[in-house]
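Troubleshooting: if your tokenizer reports a length mismatch, compare your output against this known-good record of 331 residues.
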Amino acid sequence: MPANPSAKIPPEERLVNLVVALIATDQGLTKDTILTSVAGYREQSASGASKDALEKMFERDKESLRGLGVPIETIGDFADPDDLREARYRVPSAEYELPDDIEFTPAELALLNLAGGVWSESSMSDDARSGLRKIRALGDLVDEPIIGFSPRLSLHDPAFSPLQQAIEQSRVVTFPYLKPGEDRPRTRRLQPLALVEYEGRWHVFGIDLDIGADRTFLLARIVGPVTVTRHTFDPALRDGAGERALSGLEAVAARNTALLEVNPGTEAALRLARRARPAEQGIHVSYVDAHIFADELASYGPEVRVVSPADLRDRVIERLAATRDLHRSEP
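Known-good structure output:
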């Protein structure tokens, strides 16, 4: 039995090929052209996949790319724009071109290369990055070189990647979550709508199905594997979810403000200054989670002192005392 040719094209590389194909066309490509010409779909068609299955795959891929911020434009019939039977698809090249008057020095390019490393390792596989280097879409080599910045993000939170996948696919997830003060984690069932970074930490925002309300969870408190289930939800729920999540976190932070004294010129002064407001005695810093913030403040050692609130000061002292006792017990 011959090998299945579709196995040679991973889903991530198929998405890359689709993006390049849609960027390379000014007039747009019809669905039939995409399914028979773009690498990834072409192999599936050759291996016997039905047209219905291919069309569903294309629709899922479009949603995934749009969820990643790729602006896919649908061009309908000029006489009847609502008639999408012969619709053509493209990615407007202007969305991916830098203005002519923007130039970068070698040092700036080096910094962009480092900053651009933020996302790829977490969101794309080695095969996908290989696909980017090959720049193959319609099966032909592109004559003009394409320079792109492919971000990479090295994450300490293993929950990030499965949550990102679940958001893109609009699938319900379950995970064990351990709140401060609790001895055992509880299993949460969530419709994940957005991943947001706040105060240097990642949170997942969504609808907690057990209570039927919006909730935000700190990824660092997910203490086991994230299970992506087969249960789906309406992708429209994701609209504006990131903004709602950040607004909620900012509201919590506005209710929790610490008064700190920080030694100037220290790491603590540098890191805290980004979110601090000046005060007569030191600086005011808002925070979302007292336990997490206490961990951060304790890590600065003598560089920072908590004036208020008292419960935050007590938590920092507990952590410093625990560190002291640990070192006393070492030989």
